[in-house]
Write a structure and sequence with these properties.
It contains seven helices and no strands. The chain is mainly alpha-helical. It has three domains: 1-54, Arc Repressor Mutant, subunit A (Orthogonal Bundle), CATH 1.10.10.10; 56-110; 128-168. The longest helix has 37 residues, at 131-167. The radius of gyration is 33 Å and the shape is elongated.
Length: 168
Amino acid sequence: MAKFTAPQKIQAVQRYIEGTEGQESIAKSIGVTSGVLITWIRQYQYHGESAFVKRYTTYTVEDKLKVLEYMNLQGTSLRETAAVFRIPAPSPLLLWQKQCEAEGVDALKPKKKGLPSVKKETKKPLAEGSLEALKAENERLRAENAYLKKLKALVQEREASERKKKRK
């Protein structure tokens, strides 16, 4: 589905309000479903042209509860409630409703995003001559020895390939 600018949405809504065309024909002519057009019409009825001004909002737990309470008390649909509270789509309302029913109010709290931070282990200084210190030194020396052997092998391999190139 294409993105529509505020003037395009207003024009579609005004075509409907004028009464010369039905919602199905308007929706088909601009390439949206009639449900989307109905949402635009309701938003326009509640908030006028300002309904189509982009808003980037995060909703607090209190906001979410207020919306859900209104929907339950008034018996309004998801689309109607979204239009009343200037929420661009009804899908967040359905999500909030399901979360609240399944897990309670705590489910509406914002969750941390991303991967959890990894805590680095702090190395405690080992007492010299202790068993752990000797094991750590032994492990370090083995790693150093393995590194030096690998380095020597790579140097020998490079020298051998250079000798082969000179022979040719």
